[in-house]
Amino acid sequence: MSKSDGNIDFGFTEIPREEKQSRVKGVFDSVASKYDLMNDAMSMGIHRVWKDMMVTKINPQPGEHLIDIAGGTGDIAKRFLKRADAAQARRGGERATAIVSDINYGMLAAGRTDTDGGRKETINNRIERVCGNAEHLPFDSACADVMTISFGIRNVTDRDAALREFYRILKPGGRLFVLEFSTPPDKILRKIYDSYSFAVIPPLGGLLAGDKESYQYLVESIRRFPRQDAFASMIKDAGFSRVGWQDYSGGIATLHWGWKV
Ligand code: SAM
Asked: Which numbered atom of ligand 1 lies nearest the CA of 51?
């Protein structure tokens, strides 16, 4: 059966479209408790640098409302609130707010690290956590100043539907930022990166998270994700203006953005 018959990529395997969401859920159910550890191990900590660069580009402002989709354990929302608080301390204004939304309760729960039941206020327990599918989200139209999705869009079955949802939920003037693994334009870097990914990441997933298959899916799904220009066109097609992107680490990851004008 070809993709036109209703199949979709799940890594290098083709599966019926309606199965993808539950297969992806299985991956993140399995890795949730080891997710942060594995991120550090397989990227040698570089995912932190990419996320810092992303939030520098966002330039969070006092009073802004962020909704981070497929937000997992909350890396982007925590960084966003810290930067917005720093801006508020310098210039005054309202406190910024953040929601992390994810389809997977396990990932949201793994991000709740407070041990005192939230009595002492921390950046982490200021974040509201909401379960939801990126394709049809439980948020009002025109309610967010900034929407983000970091290493999440690749896993979504209907990416066009998700991008249209982000457009709906942003206020006019609001900005979308998508951080995702990408394709290094340089052939030599691509070769080195491919060798590293396939040889190291699945075995490391087996060792640290007890789940080699989920990390095999991860490296395969990266190779199936559209290239930079193709994904930028999808963002434009969803209605966004001033669409652009910046490669990180030679294009191993890419930050995409677009404005709702
Ligand atoms: N954003 C976090 C980060 O950068 O560390 C987590 C990224 S993790 C690789 C991908 C996340 O996407 C998982 O938490 C998974 O549950 C979530 N996800 C997968 N499909 C989704 C969907 N259709 N809607 C919302 N979240 C989804």
From this structure: 4
